[in-house]
Known about the structure:
InterPro entries: AAA+_ATPase (IPR003593), FlhF__GTPase_dom (IPR047040), P-loop_NTPase (IPR027417), SRP54_GTPase_dom (IPR000897). With 281 residues, the chain is α/β, with parallel strands linked by helices. 42% of the residues lie in helices and 14% in strands. The chain has helices spanning 20-29, 34-50, 57-71, 97-110, 126-138, 149-158, 177-186, 205-214, 235-243, 267-275, and strands at 86-90, 116-120, 143-145, 164-168, 193-200, 222-226, 248-253, 262-263. The protein has an eight-stranded mixed β-sheet, sandwiched between helices.
Amino acid sequence: MPYKRLDEKVDRLFSVPQWLKSIQDLLLNQGVQWPHAEQLLQGLVKKWYQSDERMSGDEAKQVLYDELLQRLNAEKIHTAHLNGKYMMLVGPTGVGKTTTLAKLASRAVLEEGKKVAFITADTYRIAAVDQLKMYADILEAPMETAYTEQDFNELLQRFSKYDHVFIDTAGRNFQNSGYIAELLQFLKAEQQINMYLVLAATAKFEDLNRVINQFESLHVSQLIVTKVDETATYGTLISILLQHPRLNIAYMTNGQEVPDDLQKAHVGNLINHLLGGSDGQ
Length: 281
């Protein structure tokens, strides 16, 4: 449990800085999980003692910024470039996989002049297939549905001459182990498929953590975070990255507009949002 006063955790002969409680409240209110917040706060107290107890609250925030910047290095949050031919989006229902796929494909076509194709393995939602078909028509790109593993492999071969092939998957209950098993079947293809796990910034830490653990067998290392514009708390994302060091955020989305609302991901901006500052440092 969070402590009310830091001197409940250290020798009572020592005092604690007055700003410590406000920073603790900031981290916890932003959704940083207590084990991570405690480590950060203990580091601040150590720095405070090293400064002969002269470090101010503003200086402490700068120290906290630098510490998070070091822990969440540039490889953790970066604007990715489309690498490889095949890009598959997976994740729970309702996180915006289809719209995000359309944004990525539109950027590739409109900004990079790439030739793209779509494959959907979402045979559960007619609306999602229709939505992707609409985007494909706008981009004048082919789109096909894979009903079976054989269909999927044949479509990979058919689209092998395209620069990028964007693969949509069904949004289903992530706690259903059968869903993961289906995705594993698709990954048996000979072609190298780059997989991205799509998560909503509005979700609770516990739910995000369960999703990540459920998808662990797929060896996903790249995240796409959606609905960034629908939250004012960013500590959950910070804690997820601290909890799962192997994960990187490749893209963030901040709205429904295609292709505009594909946000540049930058670690410094995320930390500034957490600490209540403006973008950049």
